[in-house]
Each structure stands twice: as structure tokens, then as C-alpha cells.
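Running log. JK asked me to keep both predictions on one page so they can be read side by side. First protein, sequence followed by its C-alpha cells:
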Amino acid sequence: MKIDRLLSIVILLMNRRLIQAKELADMFEVSVRTIYRDIESINGAGIPIVTYQGSGGGIGLMEGYRLDRNVLTDRELADIFSALQSVSSYGGTEHTLLMEKISSVIPPSQTAAFRSKTTQLIIDFSPWGLQPILEEKIATLKEALEENRTVAFDYVNAEGQSSQRSVEPYTLVLKGQAWYLYGYCLQRQDFRLFKLHRMKGLVKEKREFIREDRDMHELPWSTDYQRVTSTLVVSPILLHFTAEGRHLAEDRFDSTELQPDGHGGYNVSIHYPEDGWLYGFLLSFGTALEVLEPEHIRQKLGELALGVAKKYATSL
């Protein structure tokens, strides 16, 4: 904890000309005497910190002291900063602290230009509205990942089947606007992908594990997704969007996938796994979409649509 506190103090001093010892003590929940001992340790490590007495005084870095920033260019630093902003949209003080550290190595004369670069592109992964339950799950999993501890939860799969799982967590994955946990399932004795929204009663266990060295550059969750969701991939599924619904097609598909039908609408050929998600996805377009083939998917969608219509028949 002391090392973390020392690093945090250095980063704060790089971003602020002066700061009061009492403010640092309150911030880190330690005594003022402890803060002064920390300052001595930092000085002993070769980082020049001075204390200014009197009104307007405080603790600060020696005038002109800056971290060596020759390793990265301004553009590279701005790109890293923008990436951290994207990740920090789901919380995490560690990202905010690192962003402060990056800002600290930018000379005051270049601050405005750097801020301009970091606001040219903003990617916010967080959904509309607050999701405290999801954020709490992410925080718990981050702790388990840091401590190499297993997690336990009840899991409901895509078919609605519930089971108890104990998992060695390896990676948090944000894919397709949904969060997943990739880890080793002790019940299945294999690596699995778990959707956070389907986890209930998530807790961090006391059991520690030795993390296996796995190459995450191969993106194992891409192939695992197909394995755990469906083994049947319909090829192809031919869709037709009406002229009134063409904007929906343009929002969802690339222009190279859209084939004009000659009447203001589009035909689209897709290759998706056939499962509950597919039917929900197709029905979400309402009357703007018609599945032309294969026939069995047309029939299935018709049955689902009739079922929905029956539920609301008394309201018509």
C-alpha cells in the first residue's frame, strides 16, 4: 500500500504545482506525519520535492522537474490517453490515475494542443443509463483477476438452464456491446465464456489458483462464442427490407452488403448461427423485414409472430 501511495503522491505533484500535506493526508487516510515520511522516501528515490512555508505554501516538485517523455510522441501519448478514456467509461480509478500520469509529462505550453488531440475521438462503451449491478460485477471480477482468486455464481445459459459454477477468471471481454468473463470452469474442466448479465449471486471465493499462460492474441472467445451458442449455422439467410425500412438496413449493415431491390428497398444475405438470438434479432425489425429463405426460418418467425399477436389480441 505504501508503494501505491508514494506513486500516487508523485503523480499528483506532477499535475499540481502545490498541494497541502493535510490534503494528502485526508486523501490517503493517513496522518500528516506519515505524509512527511513519504516525502522523505520520494526524495531519497531521486525525485526532488520541496516544501514551501507560509501563506500559499505547500508541497511541490522542484521547479522545472519533469519525467522523461522522449520515448513516446505527442500523438502516441494522445492515442493512449484516448484509449484509457474509453476503458474508464466503465469506472476504475487505476485508469484515471494513469491518465493523470500521462497528462503530467505534457509541458504547460503544449497542454491545449494535447487536450485538442485527446478530444478528437471519444469512444464511450458504457450503455445509456446507469447500470450499478453490472458495474458491481465488473469491480468484483477485477479484484478476483488481480488476486488470482476463483469466483462462484449461478449461471443461466441461452436455453434458460441454470447451473452453479466456480471459475478461474482470466479475461474480461467487451464484445458486441455485452460483457463476458473468459475463464476456466471447474465444473466443465475447460475454458468457457460467460455473459455477465446471466450471472446471479456473483462472489469472490477464498481459493487461489495459478494462472496458466495463455495467448490471448488468438481471441479464443471468438471461436468459443460459436461453440457455446450454436453448432448450426444457416448459410445463407436471405432478408428483404422494405423501402420504408431501408434506414434500418443501412444502420445495421455495411453498404457493400446491401443489394437494391429496384423498388427502394434492399436484399441482404447473412450467415448467422440459428438460435434464440437470431429470431429475436430478426423480429426486432418488425414489418420492415421479411425473411425470404430458408423456409423453415420463415415458418419459425411466423409462429413466434402469431404467439405475440395472441398475447395482445384483446387489445386490438
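And the second, directly underneath as requested:
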Amino acid sequence: MLRIRFTSADLARVRVASEPHPLWESVLSINGLQYHNLPARYWAWRSAVSEHQEILRAAYSVVPASGNFADFLTPSTPSGPDADEQFEAIRRVPRAVVRDDLARTYPAAVPTPHWAEHVYESGRLDPVVQTLERYHHTAVTPVWSAIRTGVEQARQRLTALLLSAGVEGMLGGLHTSIRWRAPVLEADYFTDQTLDLDGRGLLVVPSYFCFGAPVTFIDGDLPPTLVLPIQPDDEPFDEATGDLDVLVRLLGPTRAKLLAGLESAASTTELAQRLGVSPGSISQHAKVLRESGLITTTRFGHSVNHTLTPLGRAVLRGL
């Protein structure tokens, strides 16, 4: 369990990041790709990036399937969309800080990966940064629009909570894995950790590729940060119980079935086969749903993949 202890001063210093953090998205997506039960909303993306096995193998060697990863891989600089600035921030981390970080991440009882041993001895971060850069531009940049949409929806939800219920109400509604028991924020976590804010406040970073439970830094002296899943893990829409007729009246039969069919992200070809219409018709209907903010569309090579936005999923779950 993760415990974050607040003082009265900290309650006045809770902030929500204004943009997705490129390297948290990269690192958490590498972690997620190795997870055996990746949520369905990522399946089309995983299928597309699986074509780049050499890049993925290199990324997996740096970020494990589970457990801790080095704090310096996700710089505590202000979040922003410029990934290159974040990579440069990694390169500027002093060697002594890197060595302390690696020693904290991989204590004696935890096997140390080869890349970490090499960095610890040589102080050279360029090979690691280059691995992350290749991965980011291959796997994360193509879906950045979906990432920004999801994070903005999360910001709007948290803002609404703040306005209607105050800071403590917002803290209590961050995610289903998080509980506010004043003055402590408790969260499901893979290890036992306590973070005392001591008046420093807390930065909440909504993340598209964070799921299941939040994430934070290992080093409690770093600026307090809580990386938050953008939404609870979704339950599939069941056409047998959901009132699809309402959606048909709102969107028309093909668009309604297309939207309901995207509980599992799919390509244009897959949707055409499911609905029994032409790929061209799917493309036309998808354009309308995309312009309405209900889905996002991403091209990977010759494949065009469609995914529900948080708004689109909310429309389905509201039936």
C-alpha cells in the first residue's frame, strides 16, 4: 500500500498537470506491453507496435514487466508535450544522482539488469536515452492525440470534482484504487511505501498508459508526484443489457453499432467485417464519430485503428 501524508498546507498545494508527461507515458507503456492482462482498450495499439520487435526488446531491457524502475527515467521537470526536452533532462542527470538512484532501485536482494550495471560503472546514459527515444517515437508519438484527449478528459473530471466537492472531495475521487482517509491518501500499490509531503504539496499527473493503480517516485525527496490512471478499468458494454435503441436514435444504426463495437479497439477492416459493411462506409462513419470527439483514429503503416475516447466510453456506459 502507498500512503501519502498531508498537512493542512499540502491541501492548498495540490495541482493537476496541464499536459501528459511524455516519459511517464513511454515508461508505463513499456511496462504495460509486458503485462499479461493488458486492458482491451490498448489491444489495437499493442498489435501495431508488436511489429517492431527489435525496438521492443531493447525497451524491455530497460523497463521491467513489474516492480521498480529508476526514477531518472521519468524526470521530475514540469510536464509538457516536448519529449526531446525530457530526454535531454535525463542526459543532464549528474552521475552521482544516477548511481544513488540505481542503488535505490536495485538493492542487494534485487537482480540488477545489465544496462544498469553498465550505467553505474560508466556513467554513460546515451545508450539508455537512445533506446527510449526510438521506442517513444515508434510507439507513443503515433497515439499522442489519443493520449492528450484522455488526459484532458481526466483533467475536466478532476476540475469538476474540485469545484463541487473541494480538494478533499477531489482526492477521494481520484481513482477506484485510491482512498482519502484524512490526512492520509491511501492507494493500492505493489509495495509498502509512505510519503510525507511536509508542506511540499502534490502534483497529480493523469496518464493514458497508467492503469490499475497509481505510480510514484521511489525517492521520497523528489518533488511529490502521483501518476494517476485516467479512468477506472472499464467494463465491457453489453448489447444484451445496454439500451442500444437509444444510441441508434441518437447516432443512426451503423454509427451506433460502430461505437458499441469499439469496446475492443479495432481496425477499419475488422469493423467492416463485424458490421457487414464496406471499409469505405466505416471510414465515413468513423470520421463523424471522430469529429464528435467519441473516437480517435490512428494509422500504423497500412492499418487504420479506431479507439473510444473517454467521452465515447462515457456515452456507452450512460445508456
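Observation for JK regarding the second prediction: The two ends are 35 Å apart (CA to CA).
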